[in-house]
Amino acid sequence: MVITIKAENLFKSFNRPVLKNLNFTFSTGRAVAVTGHNGAGKSTLLEIIAGIKQPGRGKLRYEVNSEETDLRHLRGDIGFSSMRVNPYGELTALENIEFVSGVDPSDNVSDGKAEEFLKRFNLLNDRNKQVKYFSSGMKQRLRLILATLHDPHVLILDEPGANLDSDGREMIYSYIESVKKDKLVIIATNEEAEADICEDRITL
To answer: Who contacts 135 (Cβ-Cβ below 8 Å, separation ≥6)?
Structure first.
């Protein structure tokens, strides 16, 4: 599946213009870094692409295999991770995964995919711990698991390396490198190491 997202004169204002007549085309098989100073609108753009916010003016077009489609039909193909989206603190890591994925707990999380992701991001031993006791870095790794567990074709990551030590960042960067050829990955960042993962870059 090839997904393409096109922006046409995208504009958004919060008392002042944030996104100003932005035009771009993003497609599957590429990783794109969205950079810019704090307040430039990076997070806002990612939320608009994910359908969380609406643009003030302009249009976003979504295509699947060159056929235009409505964003509603792509909801299951988008994974979104942001510091503004938090897992439930009263639930364990495993319970958060079960809740988000809609898996029956008695099902042992389907085919073990949850355990696979928990192990990959070094959270397997903490899977039964309530998330309110997680460090900020552990929560960040769990956010990525929740965004990627359903294997989305579009992966939208707002500062994925935030609050992570070097080992945590390497886990996430390694994962992005391993999947970007099969997905459209969009990363908002001011970190050169994150931007360097990407083939394309737009600066706001």
So the answer is: none
In tens, the pLDDT along 131-145 reads 999 999 999 999 999
Q: How much is the pTM?
A: 0.91
CB contact set of 80 (below 8 Å; sequence gap of 6+): 46, 50, 52, 147, 156
Domain 3-203, CATH homologous superfamily name and number: P-loop containing nucleotide triphosphate hydrolases (3.40.50.300)
- List the domain boundaries for the chain: 3-203
Residue 39 CA to residue 55 CA, distance in Å, equals 16
Give pLDDT tens digits for 150-172: 889 999 999 999 999 999 999 99
Q: Rounded to the nearest 5°, which phi and psi values hold at 201?
A: -145, 140
Dihedral angle of Cα 139, 39, 32, 19, to the nearest 10 degrees: 130
